[in-house]
Amino acid sequence: MNIEKIISMVRDTERIFFDTEFNKDVAQKGAWDYVTRADQEISRFLHEKLKEAYPDIGFVSEEEEGQAKDSCWILDPIDGTTNYMHALCPSAVSLGLRVEGKMQMGIIYIPERQEMFWGQRGMGAYLNGKRIFCSQRVPLSECLGMMEYNAYRKDEKQKALYCADRIFSTCRDIRTIGSAAASIAYVAAGRVDAFLGRHLKVWDYAAGQVLVEEAGGRMTDERGNKPQGETHILATNGFVHDEFSALLKEGL
């Protein structure tokens, strides 16, 4: 499979992403859960292109919800839709490929910054063609932590605030940027050292799993297992993973 061809498809979503009319066309799917026409158009565009090029591979997207099969593309057309609606950076196009139950390829593109992150199993992780690696920073007190609260789950705000307090109190500092996919890509690039995403769905983290692992880091659920379905996600440089997990245990 030609990853450059897939990267080109993802990059071609720019024309949709930067269309201001699509940005303004917003519908509400649920409490604090929104979809723009750009989300829908990017999903439709990539679905058509991927089906044409790889007709035997399934497809699941946030905007075309379905069961992620053992072999399928997994897409979040715009991860960080609220950022996108408010003209805040970053928002990301996130595309992963699962083959026989294992993530094999991940692409996370941040159009506003022209940053194309990609990773392929056994081939490493890259940013705009340059190899990237997770940090080697230890201990956790010297690390920059990152967290996404998940606005859809405000019923668990006390647990979320507990986790934020633990990260802020223990790490060098904490950041929240509004996109789980971008946050995970930043772990792979060594920009941040540890990330917590609460109640993420598979399209939020599938592509990032390949990036982090190929960059030398580690990604698990809160129990230290391989992430599956909707779950909490811990992505770290690997060196502080156990310490980070233990820190958050009571809030997950």
List keywords for this structure.
252 residues, alpha+beta, Fructose-1,6-Bisphosphatase, Chain A, domain 1, D-Maltodextrin-Binding Protein, domain 2, 2 domains, 7-stranded mixed sheet, 5-stranded mixed sheet, 9 helices, 33% helix, globular
Summed up:
With about 250 residues, this protein is an alpha+beta fold. It has helices at about 5-10, 15, 20-25, 35-55, 80-85, 155-170, 180-190, 200-215, 240-250, and strands at about 25-30, 35, 60, 70-80, 90-100, 100-110, 115-120, 125, 130, 145-150, 175, 195-200, 220, 230-235. It has a seven-stranded mixed beta sheet, sandwiched between helices.
List the helices and strands and how they pair.
Layout: H1 3-11, H2 14-17, H3 20-24, E1 26-30, E2 33-36, H4 37-53, E3 58-61, E4 72-79, H5 81-85, E5 92-99, E6 102-110, E7 115-120, E8 124-127, E9 130-131, E10 144-148, H6 157-170, E11 173-175, H7 180-188, E12 194-200, H8 202-214, E13 218-220, E14 231-236, H9 241-248
Parallel strand pairs: 3-4, 10-11, 10-12
Antiparallel strand pairs: 1-2, 4-5, 5-6, 6-7, 7-8, 8-9, 12-14, 13-14
Helix pairs in contact: 7-8
Strand content range:
25-35%
The main sheet orders its strands as 3-4-5-6-7-8-9
Would you state the CATH class of the largest domain?
Alpha Beta
The portion of residues assigned to helices is 25-40%
Low-confidence stretches: none
Element order: H for helix, E for strand: HHHEEHEEHEEEEEEHEHEHEEH
Report the sheet with the most strands, covering strand number, pairing sense and barrel closure.
Answer: 7 strands, mixed
